[in-house]
Amino acid sequence: MSSISSELDVGAAEEAEEMEVTEVQSRNYNYDDSSENKENEEMQEENSPQLSCSPSNANEDSLLQLVRNKRLRSKDICKDWIRHYGLNSEAALIKLMEFILEASGSQYKLPRDLKPPFNYMEILITATAQFGNKSAAYPLIMKTADQFVQDICNFVEQLLQLLSATSIISDDCFLKTISDFLMVCSDSKVRPFRHTSTLIALKLMTLLNGLVAWEQTNLREIWLQMFAKVFLARSNDVVEDIRHLCIAECGLWLDKYPESFVDLHQVQHLYQALQDSCSKVCEASLQALLRLYHNPRLRPVCLEQGIKFRMTLLGLTMSEESELGQMSIQLLIMFYRLTPQILDESLTQVIEQLVFAAHRGIAQAAADLIPFRYHCATTDKERIRVLVQFFIQFGQHEHAAYFVDAFYGCNDIILDWNSMLSMLLQPESMSSQEISVLIEIMTRAVKQAVTGEVPVGRYTKDLVRNPHPHAKKQAPKILLPKLPTLLRQYRSCSQDLRNLLELPQYMNLLRTQLLEVLEPIKDIMFEQEDESVLQMGAKTLEHLYGMKDWFADHRKELLNNAVSNYKSAVNDWDQSKDNPGRLVVTLRLLSALYARFDLHDWQLAEQLLSTLKQVARNPTENSLPNEAIDLYLSIFYVALSWDLKRAQDLAKAGKDVAEECHALRNRLKDFLVVNFTLIQISTDAKVANNAFVYTCDLFVLFADALRKSCIPSIQALEYKSKPHDYELLEEYLQRYVFAGADEGAAIQLLEPEQFSMLQSKRRVLVSYLKLVFHNVMPMMRACVVYQYYEQYHPVFGDILRATMERSLAMNPTNFGMTVMHTCLLVYKRIRETYSNSVQAAASMEFAQLLRLANLLAELFHIKQLEVRQGILILHRAGIRFAAELTLDDPSAAPRDLLYLSVLQQFVPQLLAQDMLDVFNFLQFIDQTSLPSRADEWQPLLSYRNSLEIALRQSCRREDLNDIPSYTIE
Asked: How far, in Å, CA of 415 to CA of 929, rounded?
């Protein structure tokens, strides 16, 4: 049997239809209607191309072409078909069967002398050979499928509606013939026939449900016969789209026509579809079940079956398809409301914990179940307490924002700040853990209600900001009067204090209110030693001071006190060198404030740099604790950032900044020297890491973007990093980030106790890759990192891939060479380890290299036309490297011919026209005299073979006719 094509040339058909319509402006198909004027009827018959009952000719429009003609009304076409059915029922039925065949993609025209009973199998066998072309496409799976289905279904619906008013619907010919033909087609092994006929048959069954009284015995028998031979058979079809049609239509029958032909217990088919491997089928089933639940008559049947399939539903809650999980949870909760016994305690907890899921729909669906926990709670405070206890049982601190978002917009209990405030002011019955959780929930709720921001990492298809309309007024009105009291009451707990200090950031305050809040915050800044509290306090102060200039003196006094305390602590340390505690505390405050406010007026830069230079110059004699060194690095990095911003602002304002820029450039160079020293010699990982991160960030800040300035003094600030700088950074990456790569260090980083180490290494790696991302460093230098892409894919894969995708978009050619050299780095190490290429090819290391090449090749799948130069240069450069001959034995195979096996992994990424180019380029490798070890030439033969096979499967296969074949059997 020939390959089934099935693609309907819709464009050509529509063009032909439009030409026909230009000749006849009005086609008005009629059927017998005594109320119509006979004269108009005759005129319409003259001007309309009628459905002919005579043998077909090449110029005659098929029924499908008429249906697809946008200028013709479906109702008129149906009337004309009914009129012809009255004149010649056999010819009209042939037209309708042709319609089904053509809708499937076949262009077979049935002989007009066919007489019933029709041999449907013979018709299908003949029609199978009459598909228009040899592609695998057919109308229902083409891009225009949606409109095509709509046209077909509209026609069938219109025809049945008109037929229901005639005796044709009940005769022994029409419905019997068409249903038999559809049932035979739906059982065909030819997918286009099976798919199209199933669509039409299911639509016919639906219309029979809605238009015809189900008491008619003959129609009921036809319907039940189609149910058995079409629905039951095709609902288990191997084609997902066909199964989806069946389940979607079954849900429609049960929902709209529960009293009709279908048995209510057929709802089991919807539940069985939940076990389907196709998410689209499961989704159709869940959508139908959610609709059926709201029908009081069907609800008991749904519940009965739901109990049997509850584990299936529970399994879908964990589906990779988030929409399926969301609907499954909704259905389970509906059943739980009716029959709580459907879920035991363990199953209930499984669903409840999904409030912490990344998908918002799943989380909010699961949140509907939690209120059942406090059905015995009589007050809002008791209900809030239940939420707090639930969070303590299942949540973690960083999940509070997810927890709040799950209820936001669905349950106003998280916006009951009056009750929360009352509980915090009188917490006698609450534990310290409950208090901390309540403060965290309240803070996250205020933030989301005011800003509408969805927590980072939570997603949904329609993720939008949705602030509460009254939150900006209600938050300060409720919380602000008692905020100073809360700050004093909970100042002993850093976590509570940090959350409470965050609240004013989401409030707009009056002058009197500002002063009431500023004073207690100022006291906290000089009393607290926790770095996270100080950073949050500084951020809040930045917000409050930025609202108005009312308190400029207050800000200056606070900053001056912080600097004075630091200077005093430095003097004490210089004199005694005994107790660094006070110095560290003042450095923490200075670091927090300097990050938010420019302290240039206090002239701290030189003293800070002097201290750091002493540390770098005499590391063995240094008595500063590592935390102090780390804080000095942080403060000076921020100082340089502020100085750069200040210089740019002054230059834009027309001020002379030459002297200031000169001093800044010198400070930058000195600070980089300090950082490079600490990266090399520091025994404290945090100090070395921060020195590394600040160095990379400064490379970006002072990169060639400054050169684009029109002001010479700003241009002179550009720092041109040197190869030695990169080598030092790369050496640290190898020593810290990729240490133990061969011993499975990447897998160990996935252990829970290694989380902090993982985050630290990711931070260092991201800092280095910033240099590539922002085009500061030559792209190819990143090969030293990319070579670990396969080994560290589970822990660093997202970072590396994002950087490589950016590089590919910036310069495909350079990135192609980068990938080639990445593979080359690993390849050369392997070749140095093994004496010959045959041993190297059989090694585990080479198998790992091929996996790396496969991962790298995936990057070129996106926008292949735009990145074609990258993949092409990769192949060309790789071939040149692999083809280099051994000087001492020119007749032997090139030493590095094995590298072609690596290039072979990138063949599928070549465009067809480039495959031929690479194939021809490969011919310069001379293989005229094979050596004794033919297996050394195997990589060349395999590479050439893969190119030839790919070409023969492409649109350029004709170009291979003049090229000798090297394909290996």
From this structure: 83
